[in-house]
Amino acid sequence: MRAMVFHGPGDLRAEELPVPVPGPGEVVLKIDAALTCGTDVKTLRRGHPVMIPKIPTVFGHEFAGTVSAVGAGVALREGDRVVAANSAPCAACASCRGGRPNLCEDLLFVNGAYGEFIALPPRLVSLNVVPLAPSLPAARAAFAEPLACALLAIERARIEAGQTVVVLGHGPFGCLLGMLARSCGARVMVVGKAGWRFDRLKRLGFACCLDATAAGSVVEEIRGLTGGRGADVVIEATGRPEVWEQAVDAVGRGGTVVFFGGCAPGTSIRLDTRRAHYEELALLGAFHHTPGTIRRAVEALESGVLAPDSLITHRMRLDEVGRALELMARGEALKVLIEP
Ligand SMILES: [Zn+2]
Ligand SMILES: [Zn+2]
């Protein structure tokens, strides 16, 4: 089979590999659709010891496919269309037993979306492979993983209908978070920066799109649009410490901030302790996904609550993954659909 193999930072190679054969409890999928992700760009640049503990490995982690072979003891059948998450929790550690499997101390990561076939280990097969309705196209189903991450953040925020939710960041995650918040009945404002992505954002039908480069102060602007109160919920989706600070500044009394965008290691932010205390701000992190949010993401895609197809800006073939990730790195693509 053809595959794009990650050999270390800056080293992605097109290779011919044997089609995997499933062992007991394993499943092999023929990949129907894969999506590029900002994480791929970061990982290609500097590696990722958590998601990619050993190299070489076939690259990519967002995909949907069709079961092509099953090992002993697997309930799935050849021909089943499924989506698989890129990790599976251990179900045994304190975090897993405490109902927070996204914080599992032994998350098993699986890579290999950018290949013709992928073998899924038993733990993933038993916990995080979800069959798809025939009506759900593979390209849309491949959004399950990023959508499940966004859903975890939205669930953490406990958004109620009628609330004002500000999303800081206009990348694919900012858009998914905004779409999900809107599906909760919230009035959604998304903050981005002028350019083609911002023009696209404006077509997604949010209550308001704020251009951070035009606003003198994003925080003042948000306060102005909320009668001086600040937002009920602010979700940070840029991963920049100065924007984390803006997120706290833009939230109102009793409000909730969700830090979704991970910053570079070693960064810190200043925090107005008076506000955090007397205004009872809820400051929450959101990381990764759970078997529950993966399933709920697939349900949202199947029911049409969410149709994120508009975030796909390019379609390319497997051997064009390198070029796709360059486009991503230059900010010229949102999501590239890779069809082997
Ligand atoms: Zn991703
Ligand atoms: Zn665990």
Subunit organisation of the chains? single chain
Runs with pLDDT <50, length 5+?
none
Bound molecules: zinc ion
SSE string, helix = H, strand = E? EEEHEEEEHEEHEHHEHEHEHEHEHEHEHE
Intertermini distance: 10 Å
State the major sheet.
7 strands, mixed
Computed structural class:
alpha/beta
Give average pLDDT, whole number: 96
Helix content: 25-40%
Q: What is the total tally of β strands?
A: 18
Count of alpha/pi helices = 12
Strand percentage: 25-35%
Report Rg.
Answer: 20 Å
Overall geometric form: globular
Question: Could you explain how this protein is built, in words?
Answer:
There is one protein chain. The protein has 340 residues and is α/β, with parallel strands linked by helices. It is built from 12 helices and 18 strands. Strands 3, 5, 6, 9, 10, 17 and 18 form a 7-stranded mixed sheet that branches. α10 links the parallel β15 (251-259) and β16 (282-285). The chain is globular. The mean pLDDT is 96. One zinc ion binds next to α5. One zinc ion is lined by residues 89-90, 92-93, 95-96, 104-106.
